[in-house]
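Listing 4. Sequential folding, example run.
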Amino acid sequence: MNAVKSQKGMSLFGVLLGLAVLAFVATTAMKLVPHYMDYWSLKKSIESVATDKSTEINTVGEFYSHVSRGMQVNNIRDLDLNKVLSVTEEGNVFRAHLQYEKREPLIQNLDVVMKFDHNFSVVKP
């Protein structure tokens, strides 16, 4: 029974280890989350081609212009739209393929690579 009463909490080593793990997770999240937010913004901009009532998009050039404006609004400046997005027109449907990868340095010579690849079928408005 005395052993249970003497245990009061985590040791100094346990607290330091917990803080180190928390700092690693927070640092990793701060490096990865902005890239995923950019991807979600691009995805939303591409999907909004069919639902945006203010503009009528009928050509591939207008499609690229619409997505480019979405990138400007969301402050996505580190991607070249012509390299990451390919759009073809098939009748009444735009086929868009968004594909790119981002490399983020994590610790010295360790990098995290995020690959984004998504196909869209957007019906013309």
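-- end of first protein; second protein begins --
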Amino acid sequence: MKITGTFDVALEPMETYAKGVEGNNLGRMSINKSFHGELSAESKGEMLSAMTSFKGSAGYVAIEQVAGRLSGKSGHFVLQHFGVMESGQDKLILEVVPNSGTGDLTGLTGKMKIRIENGQHYYDFEYSGV
């Protein structure tokens, strides 16, 4: 199954444990999202990031707990993010953590892509198992 929709996101800086050195800055942020469309859900999570001294090169990892309805089925699941950017070219992977689905979403597997167009955030979610 493939679905597409929009989402709103708010990121808030949090205190970091590790500090960057020699031009590499580490950061930590909270994630709060509202998904709209066939995925009608709220999520909360945390992001760790590294910004390098080279413009357009960075990396991040994140985990977010998603709670709501997916194509009419209710439950929770966890998304894991892995992103890198090199000279402005990004690679981003979001996957459902295996066996994280609950309720009607038990058995959920899938991958999500994120797009930003004219300031609006979109998700493309390809999933199965429910």
